Amino acid sequence: MAGSTFGNIFKITTWGESHGKAVGVIVDGCPAGLSLTETDIQYYLNQRKPGQSRYTTPRKEDDSVEILSGVFEGRTTGSPISLIVWNKNARSSDYSEIAGYYRPGHADYTFDAKYGFRDYRGGGRSSARETIGRVAGGAIALKVLESCGIHICAYTRAIGPVSINPEHFDEEEIFCNPMYMPDAEAAKKAEAYVSEKMHEQDSSGGIIECRIQGMPAGIGDPVFEKLNANLAKAVCSIGAVKGFEIGDGFLVSTSCGSVNNDAFTADSNGHITKKTNHAGGILGGMSDGSEIVFRAAIKPTPSISRTQQTVNKQGNNIDIQIKGRHDPIIVPRAVIVVKSMAALAIVDALMLNMTARIDYLTDFYH
Amino acid sequence: MAGSTFGNIFKITTWGESHGKAVGVIVDGCPAGLSLTETDIQYYLNQRKPGQSRYTTPRKEDDSVEILSGVFEGRTTGSPISLIVWNKNARSSDYSEIAGYYRPGHADYTFDAKYGFRDYRGGGRSSARETIGRVAGGAIALKVLESCGIHICAYTRAIGPVSINPEHFDEEEIFCNPMYMPDAEAAKKAEAYVSEKMHEQDSSGGIIECRIQGMPAGIGDPVFEKLNANLAKAVCSIGAVKGFEIGDGFLVSTSCGSVNNDAFTADSNGHITKKTNHAGGILGGMSDGSEIVFRAAIKPTPSISRTQQTVNKQGNNIDIQIKGRHDPIIVPRAVIVVKSMAALAIVDALMLNMTARIDYLTDFYH
Amino acid sequence: MAGSTFGNIFKITTWGESHGKAVGVIVDGCPAGLSLTETDIQYYLNQRKPGQSRYTTPRKEDDSVEILSGVFEGRTTGSPISLIVWNKNARSSDYSEIAGYYRPGHADYTFDAKYGFRDYRGGGRSSARETIGRVAGGAIALKVLESCGIHICAYTRAIGPVSINPEHFDEEEIFCNPMYMPDAEAAKKAEAYVSEKMHEQDSSGGIIECRIQGMPAGIGDPVFEKLNANLAKAVCSIGAVKGFEIGDGFLVSTSCGSVNNDAFTADSNGHITKKTNHAGGILGGMSDGSEIVFRAAIKPTPSISRTQQTVNKQGNNIDIQIKGRHDPIIVPRAVIVVKSMAALAIVDALMLNMTARIDYLTDFYH
Amino acid sequence: MAGSTFGNIFKITTWGESHGKAVGVIVDGCPAGLSLTETDIQYYLNQRKPGQSRYTTPRKEDDSVEILSGVFEGRTTGSPISLIVWNKNARSSDYSEIAGYYRPGHADYTFDAKYGFRDYRGGGRSSARETIGRVAGGAIALKVLESCGIHICAYTRAIGPVSINPEHFDEEEIFCNPMYMPDAEAAKKAEAYVSEKMHEQDSSGGIIECRIQGMPAGIGDPVFEKLNANLAKAVCSIGAVKGFEIGDGFLVSTSCGSVNNDAFTADSNGHITKKTNHAGGILGGMSDGSEIVFRAAIKPTPSISRTQQTVNKQGNNIDIQIKGRHDPIIVPRAVIVVKSMAALAIVDALMLNMTARIDYLTDFYH
């Protein structure tokens, strides 16, 4: 199927391969009148850009985005917004070797199984460069959210065994360290851990956490289009994600109702909140007005330079050593991708919610 | 939005409330010629039917399904299949009290926030009875999968702190104990744990695991429609699910590439398999031919008879004691719901895959 | 594909066959808070009910609709609305003969070609009874439109060579004659024409016209989701429709720009209208604030009692005489179906339009 | 809504404005392994390219297409195919004047009504240049159809009062005359008629006809996704189309059943065909194996150089004379657009049909 589109009303369609001419995205369904420049988008693309620290691939790409349509005199027109980033540092020769075998932990084998052959250069469509389109589209979603008073904060919660200390949480710190952790001390330890893995020609996994503030209550739907279900799909559609949990997540399995239930409470104005937030801000598929909190488990980069066993296309067992340019840790660069996917899911739900009551229509079309 | 439909080609649309006249589902896009009777569907409905053990709600419903359309002379016709289950033991009076306040851990508050009012009887649309439609639709999906050689096995992996011992795994055992565990010994311990919680007027959570065998490689898509992303959405759209993970799941965060990568290996016929299955059967969003393994975290039943604090519609803080008929543990009855949702996601992906290559079309329309 | 669903936000899914147990529809995405009773829906179903004049099939069905879900205390809840009509006068024996051959002008042959076999009783899924679901769903859409100040008027414009005289147009007259024409004199002539065709064991076609008043400007989209494109699909999805045109329709082919262009004009308050309406109320896919006018061409009932040539399933050329109960003219009963499909397309477009500008979102989520 | 996407499995998303940097399309869901070069696509783009005769706008664009993704070593990979055409001869200054008023017959007014403002340069998104994306996407659909033995032929049937003589039909002739008529004599007369309109500073409408040969029976669906309904939507989504009809179309209104029904007949091998084709190749929404024939009514170009009355944004009545570069007749350049949209609708239906029977699945996944 045409699996490159995400969203119902606010829709993005990404395209492009790691070593093709360019990568890009069409954002369709963006409301008209939103102020938008390339700088707005570049800000987020820079957060995932490679080559920014010794923990990311040395591939040099400035990842400059160009707006090709849908914006006129600085504002969105309601027409599809086409965004493009040219691939400049493609070095396909690095990859000619992998054409003949299947890298463990990669999609090489499954691509061949599905399509009969593949664009093997740099992972082709399954390259992390595909996420450029997500981040560029997400940047626009984030601008829409901002104008609705909604703020998303995503960061590295853990790398390998090193977790942040929630008491040291400092949002300002996030982009001040190469681990994108909101805790400078933990970030240092994480750097040391990643360095160790690099030295061992190995790689590390981690956990990304995302908090969404300012959500009105009632966003999302009660059955298949639960807000948490759409967040789960959005986040699990990112290459290296192996798990998704909201609120207390897997811990609920050992909890009990009397603990896990969040008591409602009203202040003297009758304003309703919850005393705790085990639910993570969503009840019955709809936002409850609390902060939404979810986490994603990110696997270790499959590209490691250690010798690995695998099979070639001829069906022979072989040993390989992967060359090319790779990240020893995916987690930091994936932070903005998680944030982007969350923004896209939330914007779509906000839009769908605008027709939830007949009064909304009669007020609009009085 | 119309959030009651799941699937792209093989689509189900569920409807109905806990204390309305009936609940049901329309299955649209089922291939013609599939042999189908009400017995095929009833078999799975019986697995989620209430009142089967002391650990489930005493509400008495036989949950008899009736086929209203789409089947002719014992076979599906390709037209929508309408399935209905009448609500017989609705006791709305039990619920008149809850009209006025918001039960912790339930969707009462978010329904009011979204829609302005709600059908409060028995949780209305957010009742577990909504899953009857999923299971009835899933039963048909399971028949389609069977005819393609695919087998799904779901079961309770853990209840509270009690986990199965994978070495004692016995598929036959699953429906022989009220915990739906594939390990009789663990099931006994789990029963004891749940009994304890019941005694404490409390409830327990747990973990459901699902294994999909016989999957061909290449099913699913590489970007937004990753098979794992659709499984995540399918499973997280079930009421009590707070987390989803595939393969090693959250454990990958502390693993490293050299361990987490599954080496490919070929036998003497050139048939390719993986030596391990940390990935859980999906690479790059497409099945890799291994068993697919995922888990869902299920929260403790929010309806507990203990006194709880909450807020009424007037915005006053009050203490409540929930009456009505409830399950002290959702997990066992949710097993077949998880299995059904998995089946629906897989069938849809199998169908979409049939147009992945131009050869498939030219062979079909030679 | 699951081809039984229409709409994006306001969605209907119809099900049921002519001689099955029942027919029905799920309306999903209806806003909460709309006052709705079975009487509201029955009103429109009665307009398509058979057996009301000598020009319709003598099959006796009261077509009583029952609401099974989605309405609580007289108002829609935002959950799917399940509507059912039981088939009471099914006489399948009338149809056993047609199991073996392909009726000209019917879908018998194409059903077998697609699905390998068919529910042949009364045309199965392709029976006019399928439109019960459309009309029941359309009734709800019409209520939504009413609350937004939009009025739809559909009627028979022509039967065979007999057309209404636009100068005699009288909306009140429409349901006062069995032809559903807004011109009593033309209706008399049309009756005479249909009687003649009945006498000749033949049938007649006609044209249905539809006018939509009170449309705000700007509804619909500029590219693939043009309002006229969605109206065209909605209307051409009705069984007997062979053509669709909007405004001057096919006449534009012989017109010229200086005539076909509608001049804009402003009154002293700066309120903009068009001096003429050749466009039929839509420009560039979006409503222009004028009345929307479209027409549908309806083919003659294919079931005629005259001897016809055809082929049986064994591939032999045979002569047949169709028995069973049939309408000599489909047009009048299709009027409410056209109106329903128009209402569904318009409601969906109104809802989608509510997110067209960023101001709409910021005002809503201030 | 995101209204720039067409199709379910084989999906195109177009983007771009008349005077923006470029226009383009993403084709997603194209099967892997299809041989594809830029030349394949350019062939069709050249048929709609401006500046080829005195009857088209003098705007000079070579409309060279570039493939940016989804093709590797000359074959489609199954990943989205991004196609771009740069706008080279944009002369926005021609259009600065129209920023302030609403051109009759154009979308200027409705764009402002919907979005609050518009990219007025050359009609912005509603320019005929938007159809470049449709034709580029359609070119790929046509290649897929070719490989399935399906051939589409579209041409000008009438311009103003000048119709082709069906007895002189010559497919080879179509692109040999600037009117794209399959009848050289009619084309000459049409040229004379258009010249006359040009001399009068006026424009002409016409009719495009499309024939689809080699269709297997059973393609399409019986209810809302009827093949004719999707063709209607596909074709009516083209800017200037005001009507769509299939087979005998509007003529059925004055026909009768005994004439309009197409008798089935079998040859000595039991192969079934129809003796006539009043139905236009579709019965009950599914192809019947005959040639599919439909027609589209195209309105006269709204841009005429004659003085016209309209309103400016301040709400004053004014007289205008439209400058810029325009076609006196849209019909010939729209021929390939109609053909492209037909191809897209057909490919999608072919793909969806591959899962219509359970045998198809079991054979595929034996």
Which oligomeric form is depicted? homotetramer
Distance between the termini of chain A: 41 Å
Question: What share of the residues of chain A lie within helices?
Answer: 25-40%
Query: Count of helices of chain A?
Result: 8
Largest sheet of chain A: 5 strands, antiparallel
Q: What structural category characterises the helix and strand content of chain A?
A: alpha+beta
State mean pLDDT of chain A (0 to 100 scale).
94
Order of helices and strands of chain A: EEEHEEEEHHEEHEHEHEEEEEEEHH
Using the alpha-carbon principal axes, give the shape of chain A. globular
Query: Unreliable stretches of chain A, pLDDT < 50, 5 or more residues?
Result: none
Strand content of chain A: 15-25%
Number of strands of chain A: 18
List the helices and strands and how they pair.
Four copies of one chain form a homotetramer.
Chain A: E1 5-6, E2 11-16, E3 22-28, H1 38-48, E4 65-67, E5 71-72, E6 75-76, E7 81-86, H2 108-115, H3 131-147, E8 151-159, E9 162-163, H4 184-199, E10 206-213, H5 227-236, E11 241-246, H6 257-260, E12 264-266, E13 272-274, E14 282-283, E15 286-287, E16 292-298, E17 308-311, E18 317-320, H7 331-353, H8 358-364
Antiparallel strand pairs in A: 1-2, 2-3, 3-7, 4-7, 5-6, 8-9, 8-10, 10-16, 11-16, 12-13, 14-15, 17-18
Helix pairs in contact in A: 1-3, 1-7, 3-7, 5-7
